[in-house]
Amino acid sequence: MTYHPGRQFLQIPGPTNIPERVLRAIAQPVLDHRGPEFAKLSAELLQRIRPVFKTERPVLIFPASGTGAWESALVNTLSPGDKVLGFDSGQFALLWSTMAKKLGLVVETLDTDWRRAPDPAQIEAALAADREKKIKAVLLVHNETANGCMSRVAEIRAAMDRAHHPALLLVDTISSLGSADFRMDEWGVDVAIGGSQKGLMLPAGLAFCAVSEKAVAAMKTAKSPRCFWDWEPLLANTGGNFPYTPACNLFFGLREALDLIDAEGLENIFTRHARHAEATRRAIRSWGLEIVCAEPKDYSRSITAAFMPDGHSADAFRKVVLDRFNMPLGAGLGRLADRAFRIGHLGDTNDLMLGGALFGVEMGLIAAGVPYQAGGVAAALGYLAQESGESARIAA
Ligand code: PLP
User: In the chain, which residues fall in CATH 3.40.640.10?
Assistant: First the structure.
């Protein structure tokens, strides 16, 4: 075994660093999941999680990773043969559409070049062209973790309304929840899908579906086979009657994480993420590398992807950074494999942690012999030292 002194900088876009307090909260003796103490805890958390989605609607919690919540959203609202609008706009959007096909849905796909978020005007046109209203749902990823492009959900909602289309709006918030502003009720989202291991600063293992009234109405007629993912028993669950063994110790962690979120304040958390995203972009530009997201209006708050210069392997670069500096960076996925690397700047992160991560990237560029311009770290630190949270919030 190789020992790396000091702590590892985990700079992948999830799973993210878990605060010590959350780790300690998880490390408690197991409770009886049918007993009164767990019923009280989960009843409290089922309420307290709602403001994180900015919803007053129920949030259902499964013992699963986010992929489970994708499936749950599809099988509870749709029937085999239903048409949905999906996107080939990044690896996760594509994986979700692929799942929809496997579940017997018919996917109409809108493409991007994987360097921008789905275009509201294109969505409006696709829905307006669907005169018979065959499209039953739009499968949108809020923050595409594979390329760092963030969808403008409010604009997409407005586009759907302009097209007078009744399709459900299903939104994956897996890498934006608790990191970037998301307003389920205000934006008219029907199912918001989340996972515990990113902005919520927990291990993987809790999957969330926040469900609108319209989604619950769709559930009543949806014919997709479902058992484990069925919403019905969870909608009836007041806390102590999960239809399976809940991930009890992650609930202890969730309570602690929500305490931390309340203490910092959601809006301050969003500002912090926006600042870190901007500092990261300044570093990347100063190094002379190209940011994968081509549209400033689509910039992600939680992850930034950068292209390697032509002729250089992003995976070889990441290996050098891991081996030499003990810092995992996110890999390029799908079409971006070996062409780009990703810096995660979400969750329990502060200015000094981000500074250290960017320092590691700059050292890695030197160590891997990648042609670059010096000064990225300085550009980021100059911004972080001067930029107050308030002005970053306005910029966000
Ligand atoms: N959607 C997005 C945007 C993701 O980033 C991920 C994972 O990183 C997933 C879905 C899949 O979630 P999980 O790996 O928790 O199953």
Answer: 20-262
Residue 389: band (very low, low, confident or very high) from pLDDT cuts 50, 70, 90: low
Q: How confident is the model at residue 396 (pLDDT cuts 50, 70, 90)?
A: very low
Quick: pLDDT tens for 57-94.
999 999 999 999 999 999 999 999 999 999 999 999 99
Q: Given the DSSP bridges, would you call strands 303-307 and 290-291 parallel, antiparallel or unpaired?
A: antiparallel
**CB half-sphere exposure, 387, CA atoms < 13 A:** 24
Look up the CATH superfamily of 265-395: Aspartate Aminotransferase, domain 1 (3.90.1150.10)
Residue 292: band (very low, low, confident or very high) from pLDDT cuts 50, 70, 90:
very high
Pocket test for ligand 1, best of 72, 87, 92 (most atoms within 8 A of CB): 92
If you measure from the C-alpha of residue 145 to the centroid of ligand 1, how many angstroms do you get, rounded to a whole number?
8
Q: Is 174 in the pocket of ligand 1 (CB under 6 A)?
A: yes
If one residue of 140, 149, 175 were mutated to test the ligand 1 pocket, choosing by the most ligand atoms within 8 A of its CB, it would be 175
Topology classification of domain 20-262 = Aspartate Aminotransferase; domain 2 (3.40.640)
Closest CA to 90 of 327, 276, 285, 330: 330
